[in-house]
Amino acid sequence: MAADPKGYGQYRGGYAPAEPVYAEDDYGQHGHGQHAEDPYATDIWHPGLEEGDLPPRRSKMGRAAQKLVNSAGALTSLALIVGLGIWGYKLAVRDVTGVPVIAALEGPARVAPENPGGELAQHTGLAVNTVAALGEAAGTADELRLAPRPTGLADEDLPMAEMGTASIVPRDTLAPVEDPLPLANTGRALPEPLPDEAPEPILEAPVVTDTDAAVALALNEVFADPEAEATAAVASAAVASADVIAASVPGVVRSLRPPPRPAAALPTGVVALAAADAAAEAALPGFSDIDPSTLPAGTRLVQLGAFDTEALARDEWNRIAMDFGPLMAGKGRVIQPAESAGRAFYRLRATGFGDLADARRFCAALVGKDLHCIPVQVR
């Protein structure tokens, strides 16, 4: 038996030591004739070691699958990095290029309904509906109001088909109007304009025919100047010559007159305007004051406004009567005091209407001239 020259071991039993076994194409990165170490190979021989006890070796298919998995992971990582980069770029430029565009809808923007008036529900708001809904009748109402009377048709109300040429009358066949009734005739006469070089006219005292005109002329002394003292003296004499109440009659015999105040000269025609105003007030249509407490329930009225004092209500009535003289004829004046939220005021109303239609026609004429008018009913 040969001895080991290095002294590491000896041949026993005449057998040489075991050598590593390699696959046919499993060569390492060494020179020719050299092999890389195989972790699954062993250079130690054990007497009881069999071939099945060695660890399994990888085949070509296993190594190819491992390479495929590694390549897929690398490609996935690369795609993720590229996707994150693209997403970040789009996020940065979204405010500039991401303006939304809304496409126009086809067809009209609005379509009228087939029934613009809607569906009219019948028998709503009736007391009998409460019985079906709640199972018992509702309580008694605090206030009951009668339904208004239906508005009937007048004789001149014709269908549109019959009004074609029937309502057109030639101008030659119309009867002339002898005395039309103006609605806004105040009765004031405006003075004629004077030329630039005309001398200042001397105002002559007009002839006073009644007490109201004399009072109006005397009140104009408030705007008189010292040069018009002669005119004021004539007016005072005219007042003194008017009818005087006998001394035997109790009461005030002579009323006080306001003292004159100096002011600018009267413009041309002021005295004539004052006399015309007094004559127009005297020509107001006759009316009577009616106590509101004497009106029976159901009387038709029209309300012309609400005022802070009774005097303001009377002045408004006079103004309307001057502008609408023929329309106010036969109407009664009703001034009704009232109070709301601790504030007292006076309602100005007019009576003398046959029905609601008559009151509405009266209000239509006043509203057409920018006046307030509301049909009401005494309750």
Task: Draw up the topology in text.
Layout: H1 60-92, H2 94-97, H3 128-134, H4 211-219, H5 229-240, H6 270-282, E1 300-307, H7 310-323, H8 325-328, E2 332-340, E3 343-351, H9 356-367, E4 374-377
Antiparallel strand pairs: 1-3, 1-4, 2-3
Helix pairs in contact: 4-5, 4-6
What does this 3D model show about the protein?
With 379 residues, the protein is of the alpha+beta class. Among the domains are: 185-192 and 202-242 and 254-283, no CATH class; 292-377, Alpha-Beta Plaits. The protein is 28% helix and 8% strand. A four-stranded antiparallel beta sheet has the order 2-3-1-4, with helices on one face. Helix 4 packs antiparallel against helix 5 and helix 4 (211-219) packs antiparallel against helix 6. The longest helix is centred in the N-terminal third of the chain and has 33 residues, at 60-92. It is elongated and about 175 Å long.
Could you give a short description of this structure?
With 379 residues, the chain is an alpha+beta fold.
- Helices, by number, come to 9
The CATH fourth-level homologous superfamily of the domain at 292-377:
Sporulation related repeat
Percent range for helical residues?
25-40%
Q: What would the average pLDDT be, to the nearest integer?
A: 69
Q: Which strand-content bin applies to the residues?
A: 5-15%
Known CATH architecture of the domain at 292-377: 2-Layer Sandwich
* CATH domain class of the domain at 292-377: Alpha Beta
N-to-C series of helices and strands: HHHHHHEHHEEHE
CATH topology of the domain at 292-377: Alpha-Beta Plaits
How many strand units? 4
Radius of gyration: 59 Å
How would you sum up the major sheet?
Answer: 4 strands, antiparallel
Low-confidence stretches: 6-13, 180-190, 201-206
* Head-to-tail CA distance between termini: 151 Å
Could you give the order of strands across the largest sheet? 2-3-1-4
What oligomeric state best describes the polypeptide chains here? single chain
